Batch of 2 targets.
Target 1
Amino acid sequence: MELLAVFLPLIAFAIAGLFGKKIGDKGCQFITCAAVIIAALSSISLFFNVAYGGTAYTTVLADWINSGDFHIKWALRIDTLSVVMMCVINIVSACVHVYSIGYMSHDEAKGRFMAYLSLFTFAMLMLVTSDNLLQLFFGWEGVGLASYLLIGFWNHKESANAAAQKAFIVNRVGDFGLALGMMAIFVIFGTIQFDAIFSQVPEMAETYFTFLGGEYHALTIIGLLLFIGAIGKSAQLGLHTWLPDAMEGPTPVSALIHAATMVTAGVFLVARMSPLYEFAPDALMVVTVVGATTAFVAATIGLTQFDIKRVIAYSTMSQLGYMFFALGVSAYGAAMFHLMTHAFFKALLFLGAGSVIHAMSDEQDMRKMGGIWKKIPITYGLMWVGSLALAGIPPFAGYFSKDIVLEAAWADGTWFGHYAYYMGIAAAFMTAFYSWRLLLMTFHGKPRASEKVMSHVHESPTVMLGPLVVLAAGALFAGMVFYQGFVGSAGHHGDDHGTAHVEAEHHGEEEHGDTHEPVVIHDEGAEVIHAAEDGEEEHHAEDFVLSKETFWNQSIQVLAANDTVEAAHNVPKWVKYLPLVMGLLGISLAYVFYMFRPNAPSVTVTSFKELHTLFYNKWFFDEIYHHVFTKTAFLLGLFFWKFGDKKIIDGYGPDGSASVSNKVANLMSRFQSGYVYQYAFMMMIAVIGLISWFVFKGSSAGGAL
Amino acid sequence: MTDFNLIPLLPEIFLSLVGMGLLIVGVSQGNVSTRVICWSSAAGFVITGLILLGIGWETQTVLNGMFVMDKFAGFMKLLILTGLVAAVGLSVRYIIQEGMERFEYPILIIFAGIGMMIMVSANNLLTLYMGLELQSLSLYVLAAFHRNSMRSSEAGIKYFVLGALSSGMLLFGMSLIYGFTGSVDFTTIGATVNNLSAIPFGLTFGLVFVLAGLAFKISAVPFHMWTPDVYQGAPTSVTALFAIVPKIAAFGLLMRLLFEPFMGMSEQWVQIIYFIAVASMVVGAFAAIAQGNIKRLLAYSSIGNMGYALMGLVAGTAEGAGAVVLYLTIYMIMTAGVFAVVLSMRRQGMAVYKIKDLSGLSQTNPGLAYPLAILMFSMSGIPPAAGFFGKLVVFNAAVASGYYILAVIGVLSSVVAAFYYLRVVKVMFFDEPADAFDGGLPFARRAILFISVLFVLGFVIKPNIFVSSSFDAASVLFQG
């Protein structure tokens, strides 16, 4: 089953990639879509077996590297965490594959596009099912490659090429951290296989690295290094600049890679390494602060952008920030929960935006839209669903996951937990605001597009709307249905703090929601808590106790004292309701600004000119990086190229030695005159030379003559 | 005359009889019998080899210490005989195609072979000289064998004149050695040298002259000048012979000379060999770059390869000697394969020799191009081909004795050398195809090419078969 789920996309990629010409565009589309849909169904079945059936296992495929103490196998680790990811990936990917048939219908290279999508899907699946860090890294780089190929898919566009390179290069910085983290883990633990690492974590909790005379807590260093990898891949503040640019890629790519799956790899990584992070509280603190700040900053930028895809991109970044601060406060289950719901509604929003762009003849600027809601009512309705979910309005999925994230942050009780909570609240307000700004600018008001464009506005074909409906179902129900599993408490009575755990659940699939199961209790007082596992359940079986402990079944581990998800169920009422209130406020304000008082935005912009400039220019990250890194690097590069490389290395190295070799060769062949007497002379000279050498040496050494 | 035991001499005696018998056949039957004589001589070499395997290889000297038979001599003779079979096999079709189908050809090879076998068994300066001259005189004639070709005659003359000069040096060196040690017998010389409190200059001079004479035979720099001209001018089948066999004999002789009688003077000869080795490697690597003729290129290649082999001598240890033997074995087999291809470079019945002529061979004749590419990779020392291991053991031996600089020079020059080997590959695979070569690879050539490639690729699987026997053979030199 897991083999089907993981390798079908690879096979589809191989067929579409190698024989794309032979089987034609139709063939490619059929094969890739069929493969990914089957993979998605397999993952769903796996999900029920593993998450609800409590049967985690590892499938070993082959030996990979055996070198000294270093043993690595190709293996698929199937536990709740990985099946949750597999479901998200395969379902969203299936939707995107199908959607692409319609969206890319005018493109020349449909086969190539479908092949890349399948390649991406496979790489992402390798990443999440990995049994060790190296295989994870393989998947990690694989998705990076696929992302590069897809961002730059329209390679006739200068900006697409630049964006692809930017994404690739910025990610290298993060990958460097990840690689260092892996190496550090190998140094400390002597292995990079997950189980072997996790079982040693408690004993290693007090290990220190000595570096440049200082002593550093090893697990914290490892945690931070891995987090640098996560920052890069998940576009957190600092290494986020590639994500908005990545919107140069076709919209299905943005939905699949840059909203639902690849960018969540960082979240997955931290969740996967939860047993280690639990012993590195300082690293978690950094994760929280970075995540919270990202959530806020990205939301502020989102307020001011006009490109419809960029608004959603910043929104993605902001939501990823939520996930990270949830991780940072040990609410791994909540983070995964939000990851899952977010995958649905964000993919929905992106594909919806794609549908709009498609309708508007490839226009992406919201200032040139407006007044089209009657012409594309289905897209309009679906965008509403997505926006409601994003803004966290009940009963949409985002409400459940965002709330539990914020509550967990508050429940953490530390200064950074509170910081995250307030940042999150502010971001929630802005999220609601810019979501409705997007909706209102795009669909309402007077049409601002040209007559010609307006006359072409049309609803997208079924092949595009179908996937949207599937995703909308996820955005609607995934929150309710899986709440109990992903984050449900095993029944909290009063002071049981012992263990709770998070569990999240996810998986929305398109089938209509299954019911969720009732919660049950769990034992208290255990030291390390794990996520709970869930009883098995099929759709309506009701008698177990589903809670985060049973659901996660140890694939996520939380120390009892850190169990913020459990604590989140007991936070004050105002903490619970504040996000919703802020969301509603944001929506209302958007209506005021963009419906009832159309001049309000410009007034606001003028009165907060500096702030607007800051936000509009994305806090000047790109400019600062350009001046600090790019320019310096460019100058350095120029120097090393012109002087270091061309003059010194080439001059004395390859070019120099090559030309010298040639000269020497010619000189030597000139000795080869062909005259016997010269050859004989040469021999005599040589003998005389050798004898002279001995005479000279012998006499200077006082030898006997 | 108590030790009048001819058993150790049986192979040489048998081969001499074969040679003389075939001579009579040739004289009576004329040139039409050339082909028969060729194959008979090849069979003669094989039978000689079997006889060689039949007699004991334990160390014994006969003829009043003039002649020694031991494992080293046995192994080297086996190599020589193998090389000779290959050389004859490569020649048959070629001499017919080139219209120099005369019965003396294989018979000269037989006599050269006898000379070479005597060389590696020599235990006396006079035996040494006799073997060497028997070999050389046969080879001079062979070089000029293509009488209608100016170049061939020129090559023969050059080789002869310079060879005579080197023989003169060798004799002069021997007389000095005799003068200072009072003997021409290796055992006595060795004992005398070991008992000397200081090495007299005269003896050193003698050694220098002897080494100069021998360096000429192995075409080591700076006594190499004849090599490119003779390789180019001589008929290609003779060039193949030159490249494959005499080097082994001369090396055998050189090793016995240095490691047995003159071991006590190793301080002196190491300096000479060191210099010659470095010069050979460097010249072999650089001068080949400028060559457009594949035979000249192979001449420089053999010069360079002799440099690497000499490096093993410099080490002065049993490991070094073993490394040299292994290196020569591998070199011989690779070279035989390469010449099998070079001999097949013919267009419209004319032999061609330019590297350019190989252009696009991978398309016009992949059956030649792929084996040649493999051999070139091996020659340049790229693992896992056999050539890599040959270089590896030699460098290892040098490093183990502390000759780091020598090893580094060796590695660097093999980098340069890789350029021209790989250029051949590049020309064959990436250049615009030239006209195809004439088809039809004779069986012998095909077999030699196949065995050579098989050896080059298969060596890595069971390297010990060759490594241990080579090292075993060489270790005898260090027992006395």
Target 2
Amino acid sequence: MVNGKSGTRRAFDPAGRMGIAAFVVVVGFAFLFIRLGYIQLGQYGGQLDRYSDRHWSSMYIQHQRGLILDRAGRVMSASVEGRSLYAHPQKIKDRNRLAVLLTRLGILSLEESMERLSAPKPFVWLAHGIDIQQWNGIKKEFSGIEGVEAMPEWRRRYPLDKVGANVIGFVGSDGRGLAGVEFMLDQELAGDIESLHVEIGDHGLPVILDSQGHENPVFRGRDVQLTLDAYVQESVDHVLAETVDACEAKGGSIVVLNPRTGEIIAMGSEPSFDPNNFSDFPPAQYKNQAINTVFEPGSTFKIVTLAALATDRRTALSENVICNGSISIPGVPKPIHCYASHGPVTFREAIEASCNVGVIHAALELEPEQFYRMVQSFGFGIPTGVGLPGEEKGILRKPYQWSGSTRAVMAIGQEIAVTNLQMAMAMSVIANGGDLIKPQIVLKPPLKPQIVRNVIRPEIAAIARDFLLSVVEGDMGTGKKAKVAGVRVGGKTGTAQIADPRGGYAPDRFLSSFIGFLPAESPQLVISVWIHEPNPAIAHFGGDVAAPAFAKIAASAMKFLNIPTAAANP
Amino acid sequence: MIGLTTLRSRLDRIGDTDIRIALWTALVVCLGNIFVYSSSALMAQRSELYGYASDYFVKKQIAATIVGVLACLFIATCLSWKHIERFSGIVLAGSIVSLVLVFVPGIGMPAAHVNRWISIAGFSFQPAEPAKLALVLYLAKFIADRESRWIGSHAVVKILLLSSIVSFLIYKEPDFSTAVFVMLLTMLMLFMGGLSWTYIGSTAGVAVCIAAIGLASKSYVLSRIQSYLKPWNDPGSHGFQILQSYIALGRGGTTGVGLGNSIQKTALLPAPHTDFIYAVIGEETGFVGTVCVAALFLAFFVYGLRMAYRMPNLFLKLATAGIVYAISLQALINMAVVTGLMPVTGEPLPLISVGGTSMVITLMSIGCLMAFSRELPQTAVEKGAG
């Protein structure tokens, strides 16, 4: 075949060469057939079969934490997707370039990034909690760089910043709640972190499927709805911070709750912190002062004395006494002082003006055992059971431990230590007609008040409310500044000296408080304001420090919760 | 362009087109789509990336098959071998431009540090695939145009330069195995086209050097070869794929575990729908299935080469043989990888593996073969039958 068929074509017949190449290919196919037979028909296949078991493993997967919502469904805490950036320093080729890149992106300072990237470790963290939007923007910069990886993670964000921080708490970098509601309801928010049964797949990576068989699902924890109202909480936090500032006080707490259901509408605490950057604040500020701190309540505790007298010594309520500024108790060397000489007062006036002499005089008619049982059934000496972490139970000594003065001074709120929440629950007893309710922070339908016990009869509660009305409305009333436009308010002021650790009472450290309820006819709110250690040079009486704060909070809470004023609803 | 009379004369000759290649292609494509569905359904159903739709891959594959069949029919009926020979240079130039475009931001679509795709007007494809076909056709033309009996040294240098450009661009994507495959095809074309034995020795040396440099500079190639030699030593990493492939084939046994029943594809076998689809075939249909598929490709090879042998001129001989080798060698390499005869490479199984570009281009190659088949001298029996 020297002459090609198409004339101009050259004279080369590739048949021989094609044959040689074809021989190689055919030999290749022959090898293939032999190999197939060897693997699929022979012993080899049987040997391999034992490797063909599917491999399963147990693993834990971090769920997307549930939302924390307020009673109206406003988001108070949410987990958003983010990225953690880490590096394998030994795999990094151009350390300087990467360090410059990290600095340019604002992730780390130049010195810090050089230090971490030069560390003789197989693994270093570069950054935690990069927002997903931010990451999507800068992702490309890292695409060509070996040894730097991003790991998905959930970031806990608090859109309302400081609002309710001391109640809601915060979450650590491992995704576990460390304080407040985040800690209390960690199990629920985090979801059932049970181990997943997963198949180990391609290159030993687990195949994570959800119930529909979809890959890489997002497991979510349960959302939690609280009884808090974010708006009321915001105003409580604001008023509290303002009051603490104005009085140069050390701190304070405010509880707003519904006395019928025990729902906590707001709970403020100072000093506070920003849960988005909780590590920037000293841990002491994480405390929820309303439940984690106890004080001798002072005169606000007279509401319990009042209820005890109305129950067991009704006649004492109509007796008169002359207050000359102090009263001596049999068996106690030092007389107990009143802050003023009130002269002749009725018991009503003694409550109204917070006259210690008048109240002690009447209280001496109570049997110690009787009084103790009343104090105890008001819920003092044991935690309220709200469930928030670290709740204090206060100090209530048993009658056999009492000193000679205890009965008298406990009547005016000394030698007993209580939390603000306990005080608010005691006021709720009077406000709701005699039942001690368990306070609630989680809104769980159906919401039924959890009655702990009936403490006093409804008519006794009505008498007590009537006495407390005159604290705000009477001529001698210490709580006049607690008046709220359009609604009748009842309450009690308190100005307690703070016990000195060395014994006795410090002369210039006070707990100024006001606790009240409204509307007086049918109370729907109990608000308890405690201000710790206001500067006495500015003001220290509960009626001057705490009562105005009460009035402001009451006004805004009524607005936000749609509680009708008397004018609007005659 | 094509005049009316030439068109009519061509239509008269449509009956001379080889129908057996079309039947073979239809059979393989149908089998391919069945196994694409079987191997990809679970994976697609699981992943958000594929919309949790089990038919994600098979839909795309069927769409590519339809486009490919239309292109194949166009080439087989409307073009003659002369058109194909004439346009081969332009198509090759276009392919080289496309290979450059993968590196152009906005047109190239980088995925996981790899630039293998370009996207034009909503369609995306891998330019390396048309480049292989165009190179084979152009080399056939170039070699057939030489006047001397042996390919001269100038021509050899030109051919090697051209192929190296194509190969280098593919190597830079990076796609080492396709780059090597391009050089392999070039060597084959030169060998069949009449390279003198002295040149064969020297070019083989150059090829070995290039391959060695490539090996040394691409660390993943070395690790693949090591895992080929000792897959059991490294079951967690590079030996993993081949080990899982052995297990799949071994589980298949003689008749397989049944269509759709593969366990290896559910989690352990990597790329069960592309590079390792043959292992899924082996698990589900056993030795019978794997041998049938291999035999189909062997039959194609033998039949195609016989056709090349009978072709009337050098261009047709070389072009036919080149296409037949390109398809058969890809298939053989893929099957050899899956059975552990060769180190892991990224060659798909033509007409069977998922891959739109590969499907369309392979079908177009088949279209070229059918167009060429009209030039076969009619044997006495066939003439009598016709």
